[in-house]
Backbone:
């Protein structure tokens, strides 16, 4: 998973540099809308909403935007827009498996844009279940080792029900079952750790390794998918090598 984490760090820096705040806020707001619609507008009793708000604050989303999104989800603010959650499966270039979580007010537009982009890149859409079996949904946390050393992180995570703790360079990752998310999150918060990433993530059971040039081609496709308005998250089974990360950082420099 370490390559995935390093890639996420590069993308965060790129996003900050590009300052695409409008698109970022839209994505964060949609997650808040769906969370509050599903479980109500109180983050104390709606863990999904609490997580969405935390991510929004981490993205510097203004409080008034967060409050407005909650009201839209609970129905207090009726703007006429109806969103639905859809998950699409497909293959990117070179056979990389993809799962794309979407929140959209127009599923025909969403699937058309995804299909067009995949076809253009040499990939294709897949039937439901064709790709999903290659992944498992897990609680995922990532944070700098400077916040909490590996030994303490390992002990904390194990006590909280995590299944795996990894360190690669300056970064620590914790992976656990979905039902352990809140316990791990609370334990990290108590230890004074503010994760760079804290989410439910589809993690591949076996990664696919490709040459550097093909890896970069796949990453460009994933980035393009993530830039689509209706796409919330893209998960993949691509193994990102150190060599590919170096080449990617050189491209972004």
Residues:
């Amino acid at each position: 998973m370490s390559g995935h984490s390093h890639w996420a760090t590069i993308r965060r820096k790129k996003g900050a540099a590009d300052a695409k705040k409008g698109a970022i806020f839209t994505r964060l707001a949609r997650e808040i809308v769906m969370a509050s619609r599903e479980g109500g507008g109180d983050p104390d009793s709606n863990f999904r909403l609490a997580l969405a708000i935390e991510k929004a604050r981490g993205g510097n989303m203004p409080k008034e935007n967060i409050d407005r999104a909650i009201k839209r989800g609970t129905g207090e603010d009726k703007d006429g827009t109806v969103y639905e959650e859809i998950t699409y499966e497909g293959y990117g270039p070179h056979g990389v498996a993809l799962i794309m979580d979407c929140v959209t007010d127009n599923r025909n537009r969403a699937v058309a844009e995804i299909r067009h982009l995949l076809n253009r890149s040499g990939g294709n859409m897949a039937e439901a279940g064709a790709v999903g079996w290659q992944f498992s949904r897990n609680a995922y946390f990532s944070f700098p080792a400077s916040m909490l050393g590996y030994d303490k992180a390992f002990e904390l995570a194990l006590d909280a029900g995590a299944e795996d703790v990894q360190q690669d360079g300056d970064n620590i990752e914790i992976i656990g079952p979905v039902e352990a998310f809140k316990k791990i999150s609370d334990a990290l918060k108590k230890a004074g750790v503010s994760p760079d990433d804290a989410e439910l993530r589809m993690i591949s059971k076996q990664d696919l390794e490709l040459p550097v040039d093909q890896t970069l081609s796949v990453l460009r496709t994933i980035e393009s998918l993530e830039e689509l308005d209706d796409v919330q998250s893209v998960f993949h089974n691509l193994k990102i090598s150190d060599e590919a990360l170096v080449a990617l950082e050189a491209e972004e420099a």
Observations:
- The chain has a mean pLDDT of 88.
